[in-house]
Write a structure and sequence with these properties.
alpha+beta; BirA Bifunctional Protein, domain 2; eight-stranded mixed sheet; five-stranded mixed sheet; binds histidyl-adenosine monophosphate
Amino acid sequence: MSKAESKAPKATEIRAIKGTRDLVAPEVLLFQEVEAQAREVFRRYGFEEIRTPILEPTELFARAVGEETDIVGKEMFTFLDRDERPICLRPEATASVARAYVEHRLWERPGTTKLYYQGPMFRRERPQKGRYRQFSQIGAEVLGSGLPQVDYELLEMLWTLLRACGLGDAELLLNSIGCEADRRRYTEALRAALRPDIERMCADCRRRYERNPLRVLDCKVEADQPIIAALPTMLDYLDEPCRAHFSAVRTMLDEQGLPYRLAPRLVRGLDYYRRTAFEFVHGALGAQNALLGGGRYDGLAQALGAPAQYSEGIGFALGEDRFVIAMQAAGRASPPRGIAAYIAALGPELLPRALRLARELREAGLAVEVGDAQRKLARQLELAARTGARSAVILGPDEVAREEATLRELGTGNQRAVALAALAGELAQPAKAKP
Ligand code: HAM
Protein backbone atom coordinates (compact mmCIF):
# COMPACT_ATOMS: atom_id res chain seq x y z
CA MET A 1 0.00 0.00 0.00
CA SER A 2 1.38 3.47 -0.85
CA LYS A 3 1.88 6.01 1.94
CA ALA A 4 -0.96 8.17 0.65
CA GLU A 5 -3.31 5.20 0.59
CA SER A 6 -2.43 4.16 4.12
CA LYS A 7 -3.15 7.70 5.35
CA ALA A 8 -6.58 8.01 3.75
CA PRO A 9 -9.34 7.11 6.23
CA LYS A 10 -11.28 4.01 5.30
CA ALA A 11 -14.98 4.49 4.65
CA THR A 12 -15.82 2.71 7.88
CA GLU A 13 -13.28 4.50 10.07
CA ILE A 14 -14.77 6.62 12.82
CA ARG A 15 -12.72 9.58 14.02
CA ALA A 16 -12.88 11.63 17.22
CA ILE A 17 -15.08 14.72 16.98
CA LYS A 18 -13.34 17.92 15.83
CA GLY A 19 -11.59 19.70 18.69
CA THR A 20 -11.61 16.60 20.94
CA ARG A 21 -8.61 14.34 21.55
CA ASP A 22 -7.54 10.97 22.84
CA LEU A 23 -4.79 11.28 25.40
CA VAL A 24 -2.27 8.46 25.72
CA ALA A 25 1.25 8.08 27.11
CA PRO A 26 3.59 9.91 27.24
CA GLU A 27 1.27 12.97 27.20
CA VAL A 28 -1.31 11.52 29.57
CA LEU A 29 1.42 10.94 32.16
CA LEU A 30 2.03 14.69 32.30
CA PHE A 31 -1.72 15.26 32.80
CA GLN A 32 -1.53 12.84 35.73
CA GLU A 33 1.45 14.72 37.08
CA VAL A 34 -0.30 18.11 36.96
CA GLU A 35 -3.28 16.53 38.73
CA ALA A 36 -1.07 14.95 41.42
CA GLN A 37 0.85 18.21 42.02
CA ALA A 38 -2.40 20.18 42.19
CA ARG A 39 -3.99 17.75 44.70
CA GLU A 40 -0.93 17.95 46.93
CA VAL A 41 -0.71 21.75 46.83
CA PHE A 42 -4.49 22.13 47.38
CA ARG A 43 -4.31 19.83 50.39
CA ARG A 44 -1.73 22.07 52.01
CA TYR A 45 -4.02 25.07 51.50
CA GLY A 46 -7.06 23.35 52.96
CA PHE A 47 -9.13 22.69 49.81
CA GLU A 48 -11.47 19.71 49.48
CA GLU A 49 -12.64 18.15 46.25
CA ILE A 50 -16.07 18.74 44.74
CA ARG A 51 -17.39 16.75 41.77
CA THR A 52 -20.23 18.43 39.95
CA PRO A 53 -22.17 17.11 36.94
CA ILE A 54 -20.93 17.65 33.40
CA LEU A 55 -24.52 18.28 32.30
CA GLU A 56 -26.12 21.41 33.72
CA PRO A 57 -29.19 23.53 32.95
CA THR A 58 -28.22 25.99 30.18
CA GLU A 59 -29.79 28.78 32.20
CA LEU A 60 -27.13 28.41 34.91
CA PHE A 61 -24.41 29.72 32.59
CA ALA A 62 -26.68 32.28 30.95
CA ARG A 63 -27.26 33.77 34.42
CA ALA A 64 -23.81 33.31 35.93
CA VAL A 65 -21.38 33.76 33.03
CA GLY A 66 -23.60 36.18 31.07
CA GLU A 67 -25.66 36.05 27.86
CA GLU A 68 -23.37 38.56 26.17
CA THR A 69 -20.15 36.58 26.63
CA ASP A 70 -18.62 34.53 23.81
CA ILE A 71 -18.81 31.43 26.01
CA VAL A 72 -22.59 31.60 26.41
CA GLY A 73 -23.47 33.48 23.23
CA LYS A 74 -21.45 31.41 20.75
CA GLU A 75 -19.64 28.46 22.27
CA MET A 76 -21.93 26.33 24.40
CA PHE A 77 -22.88 22.80 23.44
CA THR A 78 -26.51 23.17 24.37
CA PHE A 79 -29.53 21.12 23.35
CA LEU A 80 -33.08 20.30 24.37
CA ASP A 81 -33.41 17.26 26.59
CA ARG A 82 -36.30 14.87 25.90
CA ASP A 83 -38.51 16.86 28.25
CA GLU A 84 -37.75 19.95 26.12
CA ARG A 85 -35.58 21.55 28.81
CA PRO A 86 -32.37 23.23 27.55
CA ILE A 87 -29.30 21.50 29.02
CA CYS A 88 -25.65 21.85 28.13
CA LEU A 89 -22.19 20.39 28.52
CA ARG A 90 -20.60 22.70 31.09
CA PRO A 91 -18.25 25.28 29.55
CA GLU A 92 -16.67 26.03 32.94
CA ALA A 93 -17.25 25.01 36.54
CA THR A 94 -17.38 28.15 38.71
CA ALA A 95 -21.10 28.50 38.03
CA SER A 96 -21.59 24.81 38.91
CA VAL A 97 -19.67 25.18 42.18
CA ALA A 98 -21.69 28.29 43.08
CA ARG A 99 -24.90 26.40 42.23
CA ALA A 100 -23.84 23.49 44.46
CA TYR A 101 -22.89 25.94 47.25
CA VAL A 102 -26.41 27.35 47.16
CA GLU A 103 -28.21 24.03 46.57
CA HIS A 104 -26.55 22.40 49.61
CA ARG A 105 -26.29 25.56 51.76
CA LEU A 106 -22.58 24.86 52.13
CA TRP A 107 -22.12 28.15 54.04
CA GLU A 108 -23.73 26.42 57.02
CA ARG A 109 -20.63 24.27 57.39
CA PRO A 110 -17.93 25.67 59.67
CA GLY A 111 -15.29 27.91 58.14
CA THR A 112 -14.78 29.32 54.67
CA THR A 113 -15.81 26.98 51.84
CA LYS A 114 -12.71 25.93 49.88
CA LEU A 115 -13.35 23.54 47.01
CA TYR A 116 -11.34 22.24 44.07
CA TYR A 117 -12.33 20.31 40.98
CA GLN A 118 -10.81 18.63 37.96
CA GLY A 119 -12.53 17.56 34.78
CA PRO A 120 -13.54 18.16 31.18
CA MET A 121 -15.12 21.41 29.97
CA PHE A 122 -16.68 22.04 26.56
CA ARG A 123 -16.60 25.12 24.35
CA ARG A 124 -17.35 25.19 20.66
CA GLU A 125 -14.34 27.33 19.75
CA ARG A 126 -12.21 27.22 16.61
CA PRO A 127 -9.64 24.53 17.45
CA GLN A 128 -5.94 25.42 17.35
CA LYS A 129 -2.82 24.67 19.40
CA GLY A 130 -3.84 24.92 23.05
CA ARG A 131 -7.52 25.44 22.22
CA TYR A 132 -9.90 22.49 22.06
CA ARG A 133 -13.63 21.92 22.15
CA GLN A 134 -13.20 19.47 25.01
CA PHE A 135 -10.39 20.42 27.38
CA SER A 136 -9.48 19.71 30.99
CA GLN A 137 -9.49 22.23 33.77
CA ILE A 138 -8.33 22.07 37.35
CA GLY A 139 -9.85 24.83 39.43
CA ALA A 140 -10.40 25.96 42.99
CA GLU A 141 -12.94 28.28 44.56
CA VAL A 142 -13.07 30.01 47.95
CA LEU A 143 -16.61 31.00 48.91
CA GLY A 144 -17.73 33.08 51.85
CA SER A 145 -14.80 35.47 52.34
CA GLY A 146 -14.00 38.83 50.83
CA LEU A 147 -10.70 39.37 52.65
CA PRO A 148 -7.84 40.57 50.43
CA GLN A 149 -5.71 38.00 52.25
CA VAL A 150 -7.75 35.26 50.54
CA ASP A 151 -6.87 36.71 47.13
CA TYR A 152 -3.23 36.82 48.15
CA GLU A 153 -3.18 33.23 49.42
CA LEU A 154 -4.81 31.96 46.24
CA LEU A 155 -2.16 33.68 44.11
CA GLU A 156 0.60 32.37 46.38
CA MET A 157 -0.85 28.86 46.01
CA LEU A 158 -0.77 29.26 42.22
CA TRP A 159 2.88 30.30 42.23
CA THR A 160 3.62 27.22 44.34
CA LEU A 161 1.77 24.96 41.91
CA LEU A 162 3.40 26.52 38.84
CA ARG A 163 6.85 26.06 40.34
CA ALA A 164 6.09 22.43 41.26
CA CYS A 165 5.21 21.86 37.58
CA GLY A 166 8.42 23.54 36.38
CA LEU A 167 6.55 26.63 35.16
CA GLY A 168 7.96 29.23 37.55
CA ASP A 169 8.79 31.38 34.51
CA ALA A 170 5.08 32.16 33.94
CA GLU A 171 3.93 35.75 34.34
CA LEU A 172 1.09 36.90 36.59
CA LEU A 173 -1.09 39.62 35.06
CA LEU A 174 -3.17 41.40 37.68
CA ASN A 175 -6.05 43.85 37.56
CA SER A 176 -9.08 44.96 39.51
CA ILE A 177 -12.32 45.42 37.64
CA GLY A 178 -14.11 46.97 40.60
CA CYS A 179 -17.69 46.54 41.72
CA GLU A 180 -20.87 46.93 39.70
CA ALA A 181 -21.12 50.69 40.28
CA ASP A 182 -17.49 51.16 39.20
CA ARG A 183 -18.15 49.17 36.08
CA ARG A 184 -21.20 51.24 35.22
CA ARG A 185 -19.18 54.45 35.48
CA TYR A 186 -16.30 52.93 33.57
CA THR A 187 -18.64 51.61 30.87
CA GLU A 188 -19.99 55.13 30.36
CA ALA A 189 -16.47 56.53 30.19
CA LEU A 190 -15.52 53.86 27.64
CA ARG A 191 -18.55 54.68 25.48
CA ALA A 192 -17.68 58.36 25.56
CA ALA A 193 -14.04 57.66 24.67
CA LEU A 194 -14.99 55.25 21.88
CA ARG A 195 -17.66 57.42 20.32
CA PRO A 196 -15.39 59.36 17.88
CA ASP A 197 -13.72 56.16 16.59
CA ILE A 198 -16.29 53.41 16.82
CA GLU A 199 -17.32 53.58 13.15
CA ARG A 200 -13.72 52.72 12.17
CA MET A 201 -13.61 49.65 14.42
CA CYS A 202 -14.41 46.00 13.63
CA ALA A 203 -17.98 44.70 13.50
CA ASP A 204 -17.59 42.88 16.84
CA CYS A 205 -16.44 46.07 18.55
CA ARG A 206 -19.36 48.02 17.08
CA ARG A 207 -21.73 45.45 18.51
CA ARG A 208 -19.90 45.41 21.87
CA TYR A 209 -20.02 49.21 21.98
CA GLU A 210 -23.80 49.01 22.06
CA ARG A 211 -24.20 46.06 24.40
CA ASN A 212 -21.13 45.77 26.62
CA PRO A 213 -18.29 48.20 25.86
CA LEU A 214 -16.00 46.43 28.38
CA ARG A 215 -15.69 43.56 25.88
CA VAL A 216 -14.05 45.97 23.40
CA LEU A 217 -10.91 45.52 25.52
CA ASP A 218 -10.87 41.81 24.50
CA CYS A 219 -10.63 42.71 20.79
CA LYS A 220 -7.69 41.07 19.03
CA VAL A 221 -8.07 42.88 15.67
CA GLU A 222 -4.73 44.55 14.84
CA ALA A 223 -6.20 47.73 13.34
CA ASP A 224 -8.25 48.41 16.51
CA GLN A 225 -5.33 48.18 18.92
CA PRO A 226 -4.14 51.85 18.77
CA ILE A 227 -7.67 53.00 19.61
CA ILE A 228 -7.91 50.49 22.47
CA ALA A 229 -4.49 51.46 23.83
CA ALA A 230 -5.69 55.06 24.26
CA LEU A 231 -8.85 54.19 26.24
CA PRO A 232 -9.18 55.03 29.94
CA THR A 233 -8.39 52.17 32.34
CA MET A 234 -10.62 50.55 34.93
CA LEU A 235 -8.19 51.34 37.73
CA ASP A 236 -9.07 55.06 37.44
CA TYR A 237 -12.71 54.27 38.13
CA LEU A 238 -12.45 52.15 41.29
CA ASP A 239 -14.37 53.46 44.30
CA GLU A 240 -12.63 53.75 47.65
CA PRO A 241 -13.44 50.25 49.04
CA CYS A 242 -12.39 48.56 45.76
CA ARG A 243 -9.24 50.64 45.54
CA ALA A 244 -8.35 49.74 49.17
CA HIS A 245 -9.03 46.04 48.51
CA PHE A 246 -6.79 45.96 45.45
CA SER A 247 -4.08 47.94 47.19
CA ALA A 248 -4.11 45.45 50.11
CA VAL A 249 -3.72 42.49 47.73
CA ARG A 250 -0.81 44.20 45.96
CA THR A 251 0.88 45.11 49.23
CA MET A 252 0.78 41.46 50.37
CA LEU A 253 2.23 40.26 47.06
CA ASP A 254 5.00 42.88 47.35
CA GLU A 255 5.72 42.05 51.00
CA GLN A 256 6.00 38.36 50.22
CA GLY A 257 8.07 38.96 47.09
CA LEU A 258 5.66 37.40 44.62
CA PRO A 259 5.97 38.99 41.16
CA TYR A 260 3.10 40.33 39.05
CA ARG A 261 2.52 42.82 36.28
CA LEU A 262 -0.37 45.28 36.43
CA ALA A 263 -2.63 44.66 33.43
CA PRO A 264 -5.22 47.44 33.48
CA ARG A 265 -6.92 46.12 30.33
CA LEU A 266 -7.40 42.59 31.57
CA VAL A 267 -11.19 42.18 31.81
CA ARG A 268 -11.60 38.37 31.47
CA GLY A 269 -14.26 36.83 29.26
CA LEU A 270 -16.91 36.09 31.90
CA ASP A 271 -19.38 38.58 33.41
CA TYR A 272 -19.36 37.38 37.02
CA TYR A 273 -16.03 38.95 37.94
CA ARG A 274 -15.75 41.74 40.51
CA ARG A 275 -12.58 43.33 41.88
CA THR A 276 -9.43 41.17 41.55
CA ALA A 277 -8.93 39.58 38.11
CA PHE A 278 -5.83 37.73 36.96
CA GLU A 279 -4.23 35.45 34.41
CA PHE A 280 -0.94 33.60 34.33
CA VAL A 281 0.56 33.59 30.84
CA HIS A 282 3.46 31.59 29.43
CA GLY A 283 5.70 32.26 26.45
CA ALA A 284 5.66 28.68 25.19
CA LEU A 285 1.96 28.78 24.38
CA GLY A 286 1.78 31.07 21.34
CA ALA A 287 -1.56 32.77 20.65
CA GLN A 288 -3.44 30.93 23.42
CA ASN A 289 -1.01 32.09 26.07
CA ALA A 290 -3.18 31.93 29.21
CA LEU A 291 -2.16 29.00 31.39
CA LEU A 292 -4.89 29.86 33.82
CA GLY A 293 -7.31 32.59 34.72
CA GLY A 294 -9.48 33.64 37.59
CA GLY A 295 -10.70 36.33 39.88
CA ARG A 296 -13.17 37.45 42.48
CA TYR A 297 -16.89 37.05 41.83
CA ASP A 298 -18.57 38.62 44.88
CA GLY A 299 -22.34 38.44 44.44
CA LEU A 300 -22.46 35.42 42.11
CA ALA A 301 -23.73 33.08 44.82
CA GLN A 302 -26.33 35.67 45.82
CA ALA A 303 -27.56 35.88 42.24
CA LEU A 304 -28.08 32.10 42.46
CA GLY A 305 -29.88 32.28 45.82
CA ALA A 306 -27.30 32.54 48.66
CA PRO A 307 -27.71 35.09 51.47
CA ALA A 308 -25.73 38.27 50.72
CA GLN A 309 -23.35 37.78 53.65
CA TYR A 310 -22.10 34.45 52.22
CA SER A 311 -21.84 35.40 48.60
CA GLU A 312 -18.28 36.57 48.26
CA GLY A 313 -16.02 34.33 46.25
CA ILE A 314 -12.76 34.02 44.38
CA GLY A 315 -11.19 31.25 42.33
CA PHE A 316 -9.31 30.21 39.25
CA ALA A 317 -9.18 27.47 36.65
CA LEU A 318 -6.07 26.24 34.89
CA GLY A 319 -6.01 24.64 31.45
CA GLU A 320 -4.38 21.26 31.90
CA ASP A 321 -3.82 20.90 28.15
CA ARG A 322 -1.91 24.19 28.19
CA PHE A 323 0.07 23.22 31.29
CA VAL A 324 1.21 20.07 29.50
CA ILE A 325 2.23 21.99 26.35
CA ALA A 326 4.28 24.43 28.45
CA MET A 327 5.82 21.60 30.50
CA GLN A 328 6.83 19.75 27.32
CA ALA A 329 8.36 22.96 25.94
CA ALA A 330 10.30 23.33 29.20
CA GLY A 331 11.74 19.84 28.61
CA ARG A 332 9.82 18.18 31.43
CA ALA A 333 10.07 14.47 30.65
CA SER A 334 7.14 12.17 31.29
CA PRO A 335 7.88 9.86 34.18
CA PRO A 336 9.11 6.47 32.89
CA ARG A 337 6.68 3.55 32.91
CA GLY A 338 8.69 2.01 35.71
CA ILE A 339 8.23 -1.69 34.96
CA ALA A 340 10.45 -3.51 37.45
CA ALA A 341 10.47 -6.90 35.77
CA TYR A 342 9.41 -8.81 32.69
CA ILE A 343 8.89 -12.48 33.45
CA ALA A 344 10.05 -14.82 30.69
CA ALA A 345 8.96 -18.41 31.24
CA LEU A 346 10.70 -21.01 29.07
CA GLY A 347 7.74 -23.07 27.87
CA PRO A 348 3.97 -23.08 28.41
CA GLU A 349 4.18 -25.63 31.25
CA LEU A 350 5.92 -22.93 33.34
CA LEU A 351 3.25 -20.30 32.68
CA PRO A 352 1.26 -21.07 35.89
CA ARG A 353 4.43 -20.57 37.95
CA ALA A 354 5.19 -17.35 36.06
CA LEU A 355 1.67 -16.02 36.69
CA ARG A 356 1.90 -16.88 40.38
CA LEU A 357 5.25 -15.13 40.66
CA ALA A 358 3.88 -12.07 38.85
CA ARG A 359 0.96 -11.96 41.27
CA GLU A 360 3.27 -12.16 44.30
CA LEU A 361 5.53 -9.42 42.94
CA ARG A 362 2.54 -7.20 42.12
CA GLU A 363 1.19 -7.74 45.63
CA ALA A 364 4.60 -6.57 46.87
CA GLY A 365 3.95 -3.32 44.96
CA LEU A 366 6.09 -3.93 41.87
CA ALA A 367 5.00 -3.33 38.25
CA VAL A 368 5.43 -6.59 36.34
CA GLU A 369 4.74 -7.87 32.81
CA VAL A 370 4.50 -11.53 31.84
CA GLY A 371 5.85 -12.64 28.45
CA ASP A 372 4.40 -15.16 26.02
CA ALA A 373 5.82 -18.45 27.34
CA GLN A 374 5.51 -20.07 23.91
CA ARG A 375 8.14 -17.77 22.44
CA LYS A 376 11.87 -18.34 22.44
CA LEU A 377 13.90 -16.65 25.18
CA ALA A 378 15.70 -14.29 22.75
CA ARG A 379 12.37 -12.99 21.44
CA GLN A 380 10.96 -12.57 24.95
CA LEU A 381 14.05 -10.59 25.97
CA GLU A 382 13.63 -8.37 22.90
CA LEU A 383 10.03 -7.65 23.86
CA ALA A 384 11.09 -7.10 27.48
CA ALA A 385 13.54 -4.41 26.37
CA ARG A 386 10.79 -2.71 24.35
CA THR A 387 8.51 -2.40 27.38
CA GLY A 388 11.26 -0.45 29.13
CA ALA A 389 11.47 -3.03 31.94
CA ARG A 390 14.58 -2.74 34.09
CA SER A 391 15.11 -6.49 34.34
CA ALA A 392 13.92 -9.83 33.08
CA VAL A 393 13.17 -12.75 35.36
CA ILE A 394 13.86 -15.95 33.45
CA LEU A 395 12.09 -19.08 34.63
CA GLY A 396 13.50 -22.37 33.29
CA PRO A 397 12.51 -25.87 34.49
CA ASP A 398 15.76 -26.52 36.40
CA GLU A 399 15.67 -23.18 38.17
CA VAL A 400 12.04 -23.54 39.13
CA ALA A 401 12.84 -26.99 40.55
CA ARG A 402 15.39 -25.24 42.79
CA GLU A 403 12.89 -22.41 43.62
CA GLU A 404 15.16 -19.99 41.79
CA ALA A 405 15.10 -17.72 38.76
CA THR A 406 17.71 -15.99 36.61
CA LEU A 407 17.60 -12.24 37.16
CA ARG A 408 18.93 -10.40 34.12
CA GLU A 409 19.56 -6.66 34.08
CA LEU A 410 18.36 -5.56 30.68
CA GLY A 411 20.62 -2.52 30.51
CA THR A 412 23.88 -4.40 31.04
CA GLY A 413 22.97 -8.01 30.23
CA ASN A 414 24.46 -9.07 33.60
CA GLN A 415 22.62 -12.00 35.12
CA ARG A 416 22.68 -14.18 38.18
CA ALA A 417 20.58 -16.75 40.05
CA VAL A 418 18.22 -15.43 42.73
CA ALA A 419 15.93 -17.38 45.09
CA LEU A 420 12.28 -16.81 44.09
CA ALA A 421 11.51 -15.83 47.68
CA ALA A 422 14.15 -13.08 47.54
CA LEU A 423 13.08 -11.63 44.15
CA ALA A 424 10.70 -8.96 45.42
CA GLY A 425 13.42 -7.55 47.67
CA GLU A 426 16.02 -7.63 44.89
CA LEU A 427 13.73 -5.96 42.36
CA ALA A 428 12.70 -3.24 44.77
CA GLN A 429 16.26 -1.84 44.88
CA PRO A 430 17.23 -1.51 41.23
CA ALA A 431 19.56 1.43 41.74
CA LYS A 432 22.01 -0.45 43.99
CA ALA A 433 25.04 -1.74 42.10
CA LYS A 434 25.33 -5.48 42.49
CA PRO A 435 28.57 -7.43 42.19
P1 HAM B 1 -11.34 30.82 31.64
O1 HAM B 1 -10.34 31.94 31.52
O2 HAM B 1 -12.47 30.83 30.68
O3 HAM B 1 -11.87 30.88 33.12
O4 HAM B 1 -10.60 29.44 31.54
C1 HAM B 1 -9.52 29.14 32.41
C2 HAM B 1 -8.41 28.44 31.65
O5 HAM B 1 -8.92 27.30 30.97
C3 HAM B 1 -7.77 29.26 30.55
O6 HAM B 1 -6.78 30.12 31.07
C4 HAM B 1 -7.15 28.17 29.69
O7 HAM B 1 -5.92 27.75 30.23
C5 HAM B 1 -8.16 27.05 29.80
N1 HAM B 1 -9.04 27.04 28.61
C6 HAM B 1 -10.11 27.80 28.37
N2 HAM B 1 -10.66 27.49 27.18
C7 HAM B 1 -9.90 26.51 26.64
C8 HAM B 1 -9.94 25.74 25.43
N3 HAM B 1 -10.90 25.93 24.52
N4 HAM B 1 -8.98 24.80 25.22
C9 HAM B 1 -8.01 24.59 26.15
N5 HAM B 1 -7.93 25.27 27.32
C10 HAM B 1 -8.86 26.23 27.56
C11 HAM B 1 -12.79 30.02 33.65
O8 HAM B 1 -13.15 29.01 33.13
C12 HAM B 1 -13.24 30.43 35.03
N6 HAM B 1 -14.23 29.45 35.50
C13 HAM B 1 -12.06 30.50 35.98
C14 HAM B 1 -12.46 30.89 37.36
C15 HAM B 1 -12.64 30.07 38.42
N7 HAM B 1 -12.72 32.11 37.77
C16 HAM B 1 -13.07 32.07 39.05
N8 HAM B 1 -13.03 30.82 39.44
